[in-house]
Design goal:
- This protein has 88 residues and is α+β, with helices and mostly antiparallel strands.
- The chain has 3 helices and 3 strands; from the N terminus they run βαββαα.
- Strands 1-2-3 form a 3-stranded antiparallel sheet, with helices on one face.
- Strand 2 and strand 3 form a beta hairpin.
Length: 88
């Protein structure tokens, strides 16, 4: 799965052009030998640290992290369970 938005990725590449190697953000859905399904991706904060992104990218990195959090939550079925009580 590939997720891209010029408003999100452009500030990262303007900050450090090499960040473009990790854009657009991707996620890989895969099944292990035991039949368990996984969703793997590089976190936005990891991408920022990898490329030494600065304050100019902070808002975009947070937006990417928030968007991926929503996607991952939906994929994991958390959105459907949002009204159920949760232990902390």
């Amino acid at each position: 799965m590939i997720f891209g938005n010029p408003k999100g990725g452009t500030p990262l590449m303007q900050d450090k052009q090499i960040a473009g190697i990790d854009l657009p953000v991707k996620a890989l859905a895969w099944e292990d030998e035991a039949g368990k399904v996984w969703l793997s991706y590089n976190a936005a904060n990891w991408i920022a640290a990898r490329h030494g992104l600065g304050d100019a990218s902070l808002t975009a990195v947070q937006a990417i992290a928030d968007g991926m959090g929503k996607v991952i939550g939906m994929a994991a079925g958390r959105e459907q369970q949002a009204s159920e009580p949760r232990a902390h």
